[in-house]
Amino acid sequence: MQRSFVQDHGTVDRLAQLGPALYECAVHVTEGSFEKTDNSLRQIKGLASIVDGSLQRLSSTIAYSLARRLLCPIQGFDGALIHPSDYFEQSSIQIARENFANLSPYISSGFATINQAILEALEEEKVTQYFEYAHKMSLSREAEALKVPFQFTCVNGRLETLDFNNLRNTLQIKFGEAIAISCALEMHRLLVVDDNVTCAGIAQLQKMLNIAQLKQMASSAYSPASTLNYPQTPSPQTPKLLASFLNAVGALKPNIMLVMEQDANHNALLFCDRFMEVLNYYAALFDSLHAVAGSNRWRADERARVERMILGEEIKNILLCEGVRRHERHERLSQWAMYMKGSGFNHVPLSFSAIWKLRSVVSMLQDELVSSATSSPASSTTLYNSPSSAALAHGGGYGSWVQELSHDQQSVRLVGLLYQCAAEVSAGAFDRANFYLEQITQLASLDAPHTLQRLAAVFADALARKLLNLVPGLSRALLLTSSSSGSAAGGGGGGAGEAHHHAARRHLFDALPFMKLAYLTTNHAILEAMEGERFVHVVDLSGACANPVQWIALFHAFRGRRGGPPHLRVTAVHESREFLAGMGGVLAREAEAFDIPFQFNGVEARLEEVDPDALRHSLRVRSGEALAISVVAQLHRLLAADDHRSGRHGGGGGGGGSSCLTPLQIIAARSASPRSFGELLERELNTRLQLSPSSDSSAALSSSVLLSSSSPLSPASGTPPPQQRAKLGSFLAAVKALSPAIMVMTEPEANHNAAAFQERFDEALNYYASLFDCLERSTGSSGGHQHQPRANEERARVERLVLGEEIRGVVAREGAERKERHERLAQWARRMEAAGMERVGLSYGGMKEARKLLQSCGWGGYEVVHDARGEGFFFCWHRKPLYSISAWRPAARVQAQLLKRCDLCRRS
């Protein structure tokens, strides 16, 4: 009991350090100090990882915003890094807004108060027109059920885009109607001004004030729940856009206008004022959501979705954006009163009835909030917007040189820029890499109509991250984009994020034939290997690429086998318990329909997490059963785990375990502090050069920068080092000990595990250009124009959630974090043979079935061809191999298999 108290006390101490750490980091960002910011970000990450709570999640979002703000002046990197909101879908954002309304008592209470005030203002009116400048829900069915005469008028657009000079016609206002206007959480968007111009003359003074104020907050006692008391300087006049809107509304002579806004000063000119207000305001808001969600799993998913897609995006906009891009300009009630009175509006006091209505709604929610808070394991200590293009993010459209280029010229230019940028990243030339990234982001965008533009946007992001890996704190703070992309796409909750990832993989399965060909060919090989067997055990190690469709097809094949189907067991290894439960249920029903004796086992784990020493026990392999193993696009992940075991990392993006000093530790030991990020990186490269064991400087640079220590094959020897063979070698040795009748493996046919970064980049660019092209052709042939928007949305989901993450893994990550280590079939053959496995030639019957599938589905441009030895297959797009499939078995089984076949021939 005493030990638990000590642990809790230590946790509270660490949480108390988070506030000052965030303020200190903001100081360093304002000063422009990359080294100090990097150290602060690492400290914040360590403190935030202690326990799960609202302040911890808030600190991660703020750390990301500070890291991105530091990079804002470096336009190439800032534009190349993909923003998390680029993964959001409009449907998910709408769900998040509905979750926010359900979880937050403020929204529900505000709506109830607005309704009561409108009822009182329009008490004697017969015909009423009500305008709501907020997000709407379906009303027609409710009006019909309540027998209320109702007409709905929809105006498509944002509040700030309406034509205020013609507002009466835009809103279709009729004379003789009483008018009520509700503007909930939207009017602050009309405060947008180009304050970059306003700030130009006093930029240095502001910077000094920012630093002084933030340093004071960093050194003082921090209480997130405390109210900040600092002088608020009201705007001298109403912003032009807001004034135009209020004048137009005043001309309509509404009976009442109700405004609901966040009561916070997020529109301060000084960054330090905004930062302090954001930290206090959103700490309270995150804490309230944490209390409401409690330990309820579904409500926790909703809370996570709201924090990431609504509140998180608000925070980033307030802290990261300036000028016309900063639209989250919340202000306090006193300031709004000045705006309204200045535009000729009189204050209408809310009646006692409206206040009573507000309190009744709050009391209805009180019991749920209290019960959730008490059931929550730990309440915190008291203490994602439409994406814009990279060009717009820098204050304008494409430059004139871009506009003058044709599409073909832009494509040629893009490819050249990508190769040049990769060369500079490989050499560690920060300034030149930034120069090329700036040009790439003017030509490329995730939402561009052409395939190469979208591909280039993903590669630019990966290249920027690759170079930023030299600064671990900054790099990890920016990992929010990639590590949360799945959950962000789904809105934040774990279940929702997995659902969107599954949806993306399902569309990839539907759009391209490669997985179907892999399943078909694998099943054909298993069927041939299991000829005459009465008890069959199939192990599916395909993880994220697993699909019950594959085994349903195998049921069909076994059912038609001479002698009837065998007793069949399927064991699947997958990290999602929900997926395994669903897969087991589907297969059990299908087996029952086919009258096949069947049993399903699920192993909740990733392939690299399975213990090779306990493989027989984990997979529940029994004697007397013929064993078949299928692994689709997963075996390469064991090559990444080898780096973790050996403790060797390349680049600087790896995890712990290295005995070498990190780049920032080396730099910190020097007397002079680097003044810029470019200088910091140049020093890091010089440090690596000095630490290289080679006396030849050029050789040292080549080995330390161009070569990754995590490569499985040494360029000199062509043989994997013993410590790097450990994980894959142990796994293959364990597989061989199980004596499978056949092991069928499918892998991407690409050399993405090369030692040299430049070679890896070249291979990835060519390989994924082909896959993006396949997807584009599939989208173009997906039906008529009425289906095109949905097809484009599905294609974008695959490009961002599946292929984009793979590209980032190949190009940007190093060490144990680099999971996507695809290799060619020839390399896999050497590995398998070294582990004592023997090739099993895939039959002509399997190729015939695969080609028949392509022909029947009308997949033009795809083909199936033999490898050089005539024993494996390549799945190709326009003659370019993109996937390989091969079959293996323990070499000791070869003679026994030949004798078995001879015996079967004699019997027949």
UniProtKB/TrEMBL annotation:
A motif (LXXLL motif) lies at residues 635-639. The keyword Transcription regulation applies. Residues 582-614 are annotated as: Leucine repeat II (LRII). Signal peptide: none annotated. The keyword Transcription regulation applies. Transmembrane segments: none annotated. Keywords: Transcription, Transcription regulation. Residues 320-399, 812-889 are annotated as: SAW. A motif (VHIID) lies at residues 536-540. Belongs to the GRAS family. PANTHER family: OSJNBA0084A10.13 PROTEIN-RELATED. This is Uncharacterized protein. It comes from Eragrostis curvula.
